[in-house]
Amino acid sequence: MSTLTKFSAIPYTGPAPTNRSPYLPAGVEQIDARALEIGAKIASPDLEHEAGQDMPTFVVERGKIVDALRALRDHQDLQFTLPLDLWGVDYPRRRDVGRFDVMYQLYSLKNNERVRLKVHVREDESVPTSVGVFRGYNWFEREVWDMFGIRFEGHPNLRRILCHEAFQGHALRKDYDPAQRWLLTEKDIAKIIPTIVLPREESDFEQVTLNLGPSHPATHGTLRIVVTLDGETIIGAESEIGYLHRCFEKMSETHTYQQVIPFTDRLNYCSAIINNVGYCMAVEKLLAIEAPPRAQHIRLMLSEFMRIADHIVCIGANLVDMGALTNFWYLFQPREEILGLVESCCGARLLPSYTRIGGLAVDAPSDFLSNAQRLVDKLPKYIDDVDKLVTRNRIFLDRVVGVAPITAADAINFGFTGPCLRACGVPYDVRKAQPYGGYETYDFDVPIAEAGDTNARYLVRMEEMRQSIRIIQQGIDRGLPAGPVIVNDPYVALPPKAKVYNEMESLIYHFKLIMHGIQPPVGEVYFRVEGANGELGFYVVSDGTKNPYRVRVRPPCFPIFEAYSHMIIGQTIPDAIAALGSLNIIAGELDH
Amino acid sequence: MGIIKVQPKPLSVSERLYIPNVLKGMVVTFGHLVRNLFNIKKLPLISYPEVKRIYSERFRGRHILTTRDDGTTRCVACFMCSTACPAECITIKAGEDERTREKFPVRYEIDLLRCIFCGYCVDACPEDAIYMTRDYEMAIDTRARSVVGLRDLVVPPNFPVGPMGWRPYYGQIEKHGTAGGTGVGQALRQAPFPDEAPPNPDVFRG
What we know:
The complex is a heterodimer of chains A (about 600) and B (about 210). Chain A has about 600 residues and is α+β, with helices and mostly antiparallel strands. Chain A is about 40% helix and about 15% strand. The two termini of chain A are about 30 Å apart. Mean pLDDT of chain A is about 85; it is low at about 1-15. With about 210 residues, chain B is α+β, with helices and mostly antiparallel strands. The interface between A and B is large, with 71 and 61 residues.
């Protein structure tokens, strides 16, 4: 059997019959009531409320979307200032309102709430660009253009972003055949000339355009930044991404819900368990189930371990870029041990695929807590070593203080989340703001800094590692709750092997689940976790079949890397390298 | 909500002096050097390939196909593993035994270059037929050799438990502890695990 036959063009056949009632989120009355309140506050344009969604959702007319976004952002009581996400969904069978949905998600730091806007678009129609309201939507709109072919009128730079220039068609349309291959030849490659943003007086130096990356030791992944230099000062920059694009979202549509979990590992491969948890919790929300307490406890502890590991990679590699190689060695030993702990749970170090929808693949080993305790005892020593070597080191501070700063207002406008936003003084952490998986019962602090420069990001990450250790210590002290690690629901979780070998009924459930997969009710959900880089969101649409209709991942680095080329203007090349390391751009996540 | 500010203080005059600060840094690095010199055995170092790292008993390495006591392959070519495989790397061709009317795999191939070692095939198998081992040395020199067939996968009956990794159940293994998983230091256990008990798939069947 050729491996490609399975991917050949399968025309979309519409929602499959499902015996479940459509998905209704918990607390839908409050959400709808709140949506009506928000709708009443916005006088113009009209926001048409869509009931029964997991967050206040409005359908906006195509021409009025910019006004709606601006009204939501500027309203005194609402202040939806943080543009979280923008994505598209394709419903080719829908005839009445147009084929595509373009979705906007905003977050209000003031009221700690989210809102989703939907715009219905026909195939020949375009949407006015919202770059003027939220700068961060620039790349998101390019992505929707690339993936769905929806034009954004007035967009300053509507090029393909994830696929290459020779790519034909738009990959996330349902009628796109994923078995097609497009070859990029040298003559197709577009020449990128960065727009000169920084006006310079006449100088004797010739301006030079230089490629940083895509394979450069300082870019830590396949990123490419085209910079224009005047001497050593960067006067123009443009980032180019997509070198690691593996069509995660399209792959998810041709695989079952359970099979998507190994793909999520490959998003942010430095902290894969957090991705696993985020995706599984999104599907669990759709299924209206909750993982058992024991599974949640292990998930939370391993997530925090992975967060430490991710920050270790970021800080260690960042310091290597600045010539401080020793720290890398000191930090990578505890990382190695953290990955060892993960491996003892699930058998793989970097790409664990440990969670399953409804819980975990297997229980943690019997010595999990004692190993975790040993690690927690050791970790502060390693962090302190780096602290002693670097934090008050004059050479280090000369390299990082005031380098590539970003103000809080800009960071919010770009859609920053995570440590990079907290380094600007905005204390937004999903674990505190909208706790999930038991974080509300843990005692920890959110570190913030004010400068928003490379040093602030370094300090926030260092403190976050200490806070994560605090969380893990509390988790160890509480002990693992007794009970199973996966829900006892034969439509969701595989029955135990002992039963599969012995009982006919379990064997049938086993067979049904492998062959026909989990079939969640029809509906759409968004679920977010605090990834190591910021808010990691999964938006899942189910049409009742075994394959997700649409999986959208909100990669936290995406808006951060978008802002990067703005942050380095006026800086020098070594500063740009130091700043890039401190943002922790993970190419796997950035490029989906 | 607890918020900590980690605003850096400006450097004091003594902190701005180079030489004392360089020496301060040296104290840390030389501390490591001295500690390592006197604890060479505890160095976080594995001299591969002389010393091999031993992973935990859940390690998801190369696959094996188990056999029944009479020497026939347990696999009944039900295609569950190839269906569950997210990477679509398993190819099975089923045949029928003339004598016993049992289905069995005529061809069973795993493309190890496509395989992502997620362990879903092991979870999906209803016949206790496919396991993963702790073998992680899979270097090959041609692409063709990445496809392993029945000849490479099927192991004789009473295959020792020691090298086994990810498998459907973990009944008797926990007594070894979780092996090399945590900590580089622990991974230096050179002796493989004692091959005491042969795999006993009937452990749940009695």
